[in-house]
Every structure is written in structure tokens, then in C-alpha cells.
Design a protein that fits this description.
Rossmann fold; 8 helices
């Protein structure tokens, strides 16, 4: 049963959350994450933002993106941009800050609280703006790493700071479950049908 915390929405900076969980030594179980936050209020939307390298035949992010889109998350993606540095090395970059900020502002009138899964200080201004509209803001990141992943200005702006390390028991993937999957042969027989499609078609229509 949802708690009495009102209407809530999750905004997940995918790259930032992945890096944070990795620094803390665990993997996110997104099914558990959704269950946990549904128990905290009336969850209107859970949005996940990431860039995708469309030129690669297969990318490790594609199965996750596809799974999330079928299991209660709203996916917002865009192609990774490539460039060459001063040494002529091929590099890739991309962030979803603008897309995430716009969605936060648009949904703010319809929710009582938002949870931002990111430590990026560039979100401070948008958090301040929605707080002026009476929306309560919780930032989910970590201070337990050295240095802390969450920007100090973002943590100070939040009404509540929730350390991802404290959520590990509730939303972390069971390591024994991962080992079990790795030893299953062939693996795709144990995967949902939509994850067995060719990688190039994995994000079609996103």
C-alpha cells in the first residue's frame, strides 16, 4: 500500500546512477527500486534518462533500456555524440541534463515530491525552481565515497538527501542471483523474449 507522502515522481540520471552504484560496489535491481518507491507514495512516473550509441552493433545499455521500457519506466534516450580530441583520439560524450530538467519543470505542478537520482550540481537551479512551487525534493546519491559523488550545492538544495548506500539492502541486486545467471547455458533461454531480439532493433521506437 502506498504511504501518505502524496504524489511522487522519479527522475533517474542513468549514467550518474550507474557510476554511483558501481562506486559503492553493487548493481541496481530496477524492479526492486520501483517497488520500493511505490511504497513511499502514489508513484505517477519513473523516468530514466540515458544516451545510446546507435552506431555500435551491440551496446551493453541496450538490454537494460529495453527491459526498463517494458517494466514501468519511461525511457528518454538520445544518441551519443562523437568527437576527436586534440590528439586525434575518438571520444564519445552525451548527457541528458536538459531533457531531465524540462521534464521536472513540466511535471512539477502535478506532484507533491520528486526524487532525483543524480549527484550532478547542474540540477541545483531546477530543484530550486520546483521548490518555489511547493514541491518537496529528495536527492538520491552518495557521500560515502572519497570524494563524495554528490555535489555539495545539490545536497544543500535538497529538502531531503538520501544516500544510495542506505538503499543497498532494498534495491541492490542479489550477487548470488547474478552468479546463477552467468552459469546458465544458453543464457537467452532464461531471458524475456524481447531481450532476445537483435540488438539493432532493441530501442526501435524509443
Amino acid at each position: 500500500m502506498p504511504s501518505s507522502n502524496g504524489k511522487i515522481a522519479l527522475f533517474i540520471d542513468g549514467v550518474n546512477l550507474y557510476a554511483t552504484a558501481k562506486a559503492l560496489g553493487f548493481e541496481i535491481d530496477y524492479k526492486k527500486l520501483l517497488q520500493e518507491f511505490r511504497s513511499r507514495g502514489n508513484l505517477l512516473r519513473a523516468s530514466y534518462y540515458t544516451t545510446v550509441d546507435e552506431d555500435q552493433e551491440y551496446s551493453t545499455i541496450r538490454p537494460l533500456v529495453d527491459w526498463l521500457s517494458y517494466n514501468g519506466f519511461r525511457l528518454v534516450t538520445k544518441p551519443t555524440k562523437e568527437f576527436f580530441d586534440h590528439a586525434g583520439q575518438r571520444k564519445a560524450k552525451g548527457n541528458m541534463c536538459v531533457e531531465l530538467a524540462v521534464d521536472v519543470m513540466e511535471l512539477a505542478p502535478h506532484v507533491d515530491q520528486i526524487f532525483l537520482f543524480s549527484g550532478d550540481g547542474s540540477f541545483q537551479s531546477v530543484l530550486e525552481a520546483v521548490q518555489r512551487r511547493g514541491v518537496r525534493v529528495t536527492v538520491v546519491s552518495t557521500m560515502t565515497t572519497a570524494p563524495p559523488i554528490v555535489a555539495d550545492e545539490l545536497r544543500r538544495q535538497a529538502d531531503v538527501f538520501l544516500d544510495l548506500a542506505d538503499l543497498r539492502a532494498k534495491i541492490g541486486r542479489d550477487p548470488s542471483e547474478r552468479r546463477s545467471r552467468e552459469h546458465q547455458e544458453p543464457q537467452e533461454e532464461h531471458s524475456p523474449e524481447f531481450l532476445r531480439r537483435p540488438a539493432r532493433a532493441a530501442v526501435a521506437g524509443d
